[in-house]
Amino acid sequence: MKKLLIAFLILSAMIFATSCDSESEHVHAYGEWLITTAYSCETAGEATRTCSCGEKETKTIAPQHTPGAAATCITAQTCTACGSQLAPATGIHNYGTWVETTAPGCETEGVEARTCACGDTETRPVAAKGHTPGAATCTTAQLCTVCDTELVPAKGHSYTGFTCINCGELKPVSQGLAFKSRYDGTCYVSGIGNCTDAYIIIPSASPDGERVTGISYGAFWFCDSLMGVIIPNGVTSIGDSAFKGCSSLTSINIPDGVTSIGASAFRYCSSLTSINIPDGVTSIGDCAFWGCSSIASINIPDGVTSIGNYAFYNCTGLTSVTIGDGVTSIGNYAFYN
Length: 337
Description:
Layout: H1 2-21, E1 34-37, E2 45-50, E3 56-61, E4 77-78, E5 85-87, E6 99-102, E7 110-115, E8 121-126, E9 142-143, E10 150-152, E11 159-160, E12 163-164, E13 178-181, E14 186-191, E15 199-201, E16 211-215, E17 228-230, E18 237-238, E19 251-253, E20 260-261, E21 283-284, E22 297-300, E23 306-307, E24 320-323, E25 329-330
Parallel strand pairs: 14-16, 15-17, 16-18, 17-19, 18-20, 20-21, 21-23, 22-24, 23-25
Antiparallel strand pairs: 1-2, 2-3, 4-5, 6-7, 7-8, 9-10, 11-12, 13-14
């Protein structure tokens, strides 16, 4: 009996050895790793897993820290368990977006700022915006529409003829003309005086304040540089030879208040292209328009009763004449060419 028991034990041992030592007959099927010795931040631990056959396998668990928040520009990363430093502060700020803190002006720089999570702030200049030009006129300077700084001075008028080519404004009345008083609060233009204007605007009153009512005999006699004249509404008479020989005169306005045009008033005004004779005129003097060779047409209103001798003599360009119903007398050679 004792021999049978020994034989059974030897057979069992052989069977067991064969099943675990032969890979073809048994593969270890380990379970999950179980920590048998806890690890810490600086001390290794150990883990074990066991096969169904009872075989055990162990491994070492390396020491490891538990990282806290990532390092920032001024704060190191530390272990949440032991407080050890894991990564130094980066020293590199993480700024947000730029925000304008001081607005730039036309000539002054502005300021922008941005802030890091740590509270550090950096700034940078913002270029001045420059001026926003308005419009300059003849009489007003060009200003910046934002800050009103003067950018360009007023241009000043640039007259061609009677009007400014920039703004269309009528030029001021001419200065320096000569006047003669009638000693009744009125006066008449007696000469060009020291006026140098090529386009003359006769004022409605003299420098002494007397109302201008007439243009005297020979006032602008042979002023060959005179190109244009505007006569004020208060004038009632244009004297004899008033503009005689003004060969460069191209335009003149005769106001409605004028009642008489004197003898030779516009004689030899060879550049005069047109003439308006207002309804109030009652007489046109002798030789009034003699030699006005550039006038093409004449309209004589109904108020005119008499046309003097040679009134339109040698007006070689004249092709059309309209004579009003009021004319009762036409002088010798009035329209002779």
